[in-house]
Amino acid sequence: MDINSFFLKREEGVNDFFVLLFGASYFFYRRNSPVQYGISLSSMLISIFLFLYSIFGVGGFEGMGLGALAAALFLASILSLFVNVLFNIINGRGKGAV
Fold it and tell me: Are 47 and 70 in contact (CB under 8 A)?
């Protein structure tokens, strides 16, 4: 079983990525490190490159599955970044981040 079929058979693929990204970002949030934003932003870049690779490099139904995985990763990274920024605004650490 490859990783694409594992995430595509489960409908909670976005939730898995979100929990992983948010957990890593929250770990650095507790340490008040700027790395908490870098995790989400780097996963966004990886998902964009993965999506482009699925279109131009793989193609066909395999590329469509890889593209769905990249879209799930992109959506999860956006959600994770949004929740991190929201936590910083609520807790008052990001006073200028409105």
Answer: yes
